[in-house]
Amino acid sequence: MSVARLRRVAVLVLEGAKPLDVGIPAQVFTTRASMPYEVRLCGAAPGLVTGGDGLSYHVADGLDALAWADIVFVPGYRFPDREDPPQAVLDALITAHDRGARLAAISTGAFALAATGLLDGKRATTHWHYTRALAAKYPLVKVDENVLFVDEGSMLTSAGAASGIDLCLHILRGDLGVAASNHAARRLVAAPYRSGGQAQYVPRSVPEPLGERFAATREWALHRLGEPLTLETLARQAAVSPRTFSRRFVDETGYTPMQWVMRARVDMARELLERSERSVEQIAADVGLGTGANLRLHFHRLLGTTPSDYRRTFAQGE
Q: pTM of this prediction?
């Protein structure tokens, strides 16, 4: 198996940067033997950067790191709606993007990306407390307040801090495959996958214990993907009516129950393609999709590729 190409990650620490937002990409993409990433923290200039919540950061690199990076993360920072980052920072972000780097914002870091103009005409999100401010300040940005993260290809944005983990795992899945993403999630003790379409927060009128019950039902289903799973089966496991289960499930995940099951089955198939030599027919049976033809159909519909091409890409590295 060949070694995956090393990817370079710059975490841009702005004045007032939120500690958790800074730590997430640094932790997920941490430089280690099992992860083909090199991470650098940088600022508008090398040296001390005053952060938010009583913490400061000493960064070794300045904006030259953005010219080096394949991915640039912009963590959230305090008072993003009051003033823009320095023009030199915005220019460096634009140059990095034009060079082909991906720009990814965590929480209010979306304001910095919007200030470059690169989000004009694109979907984006930020922490729910700031979505209206983002839309008001940058009316050309299509702000979506009801999602955890948005992937617009070279421009990615996420909601509050915890959804930054979801965005990082989403990037890992695209770069290295499901197995690597799941490994990182286990290391972080995080959910292996929450879709970008999942709601940022549950409406207050929903009782919290029911939300916990639904999470337990999803976990139960993930261990039984090879078995018949119907709406009625899932609702029975959650001890609610199918109608209540379906309505609440969409509120919590952004998918209908059966859409979620299908995506979970395709994800399980992806990991088996990466980590085993089982045939497409065998994998289809293992994940509850019956036949290889059925697996190929849903694989192409959800991922735009075939199981065989996917296996060639991720089972052998890059």
A: 0.72
314 phi/psi in degrees, rounded to 5? -100, -25
Cite the beta strand spans of the chain per DSSP E: 7-12, 37-42, 47-50, 56-59, 71-74, 102-105, 123-124, 142-143, 149-151, 155-158
For the chain, residues with pLDDT lower than 50 are 1-3, 196-209, 317-318
Residue 147, classified by CB atoms within 10 Å of its CB into exposed (0-12), middle (13-18) or buried (19+), is buried
- Burial readout 231-252 (b: 16 or more C-beta within 10 A, e: otherwise): bebbbebbebebeebbebbbbb
Task: Reduce the DSSP state of residue 157 to 3 states and report it.
Answer: strand
C-alpha 145/C-alpha 126 separation (Å) is 7
* Total Cβ atoms within 10 A of residue 207: 10
Cα angle 191, 197, 198 (rounded to 5 degrees) comes to 50
> What pLDDT, in 10s, does the model give residues 14-41?
999 999 999 999 988 986 667 889 999 9
CA distances from 299 to 28, 41, 229, 284, 308 (A): 27, 37, 19, 11, 10
Distance of CA 297 to the CA centre of its chain: 25
Could you tell me which of 215, 219, 246, 216 has the C-alpha nearest to residue 230?
246
- 155-158 vs 149-151, strand pairing mode: antiparallel
Amino acid 204: pLDDT? 34
207-217 pLDDT, tens digit each: 344 556 788 89
> For residue 85, what is the DSSP state?
P
